[in-house]
Amino acid sequence: AQSVTQLGSHVSVSEGALVLLRCNYSSSVPPYLFWYVQYPNQGLQLLLKYTSAATLVKGINGFEAEFKKSETSFHLTKPSAHMSDAAEYFCAVSDRSGYSTLTFGKGTMLLVSP
Amino acid sequence: NAGVTQTPKFRVLKTGQSMTLLCAQDMNHEYMYWYRQDPGMGLRLIHYSVGEGTTAKGEVPDGYNVSRLKKQNFLLGLESAAPSQTSVYFCASKDRGSNQPQHFGDGTRLSIL
Q1: Closest-CA distance of chain B to residue A72, Å
Q2: Residues B98, A106: C-beta atoms closer than 8 Å
Q3: Under the phi-then-psi rule, with left for phi > 0, alpha for psi from -120 to 50, and beta for the rest, what region is B27?
Q4: What are the mean pLDDT values of chain A's consecutive 10-residue runs (114 residues total)?
Q5: How far is the C-alpha of A15 from the C-alpha of A22, rounded, in Å?
Q6: Best residue in A39, A47, A99, A109 to probe B by mutation, most B CBs within 10 Å?
Q7: Chain A contact for B102, CB < 8 A?
Q8: What is the pLDDT of residues A46-61, one digit of tens each?
């Protein structure tokens, strides 16, 4: 069985500060990993995905994530937060089966203050 | 390109009523999924389909039924709504290949009184 743990239900940063959102996974097979962002009253939008090519993955809006197998982690970072980054972020792991179901973490709300 | 469209966007039901949520995708995707999102719980998979005429249970299937009569549509039914089914429901679709991402609709907010 797969699982995803996102450390911290809320993370607060100042505009211009580093953003770090943590994601740890457990999987019996090498996983595919995804980060999604959800703005208020909207669906989930893909930020980036890891599919066993490069371990450092670049996504949209200046976000990137690094896959670390030894730490079973896939943390999301952005060098400088912008007010528009305030949203909820979800990490998810795919089971790599033919059904490709996703297991989501519980989400981290990013708050950005001026 | 509309992507994934969910109807309705909002609905209020009384306990015991039934309703159907419609998901339509125009990307010719094989796989479709229904999730529910509750505060602090992330998204949980209700049912999914890997092709027309096929469906399977996810993590939280009780109280829901689904049908995939056409490739582009995936219906989620509540036969007898309960207050515990108050939630935001999301539909998603994806192409074949486990490395392909899921594409989400904007959700249906459902309240059961």
Answers
A1: 18
A2: no
A3: alpha
A4: 91 97 88 93 92 88 94 96 96 80 94 96
A5: 19
A6: A99
A7: yes
A8: 999 998 778 899 999 9
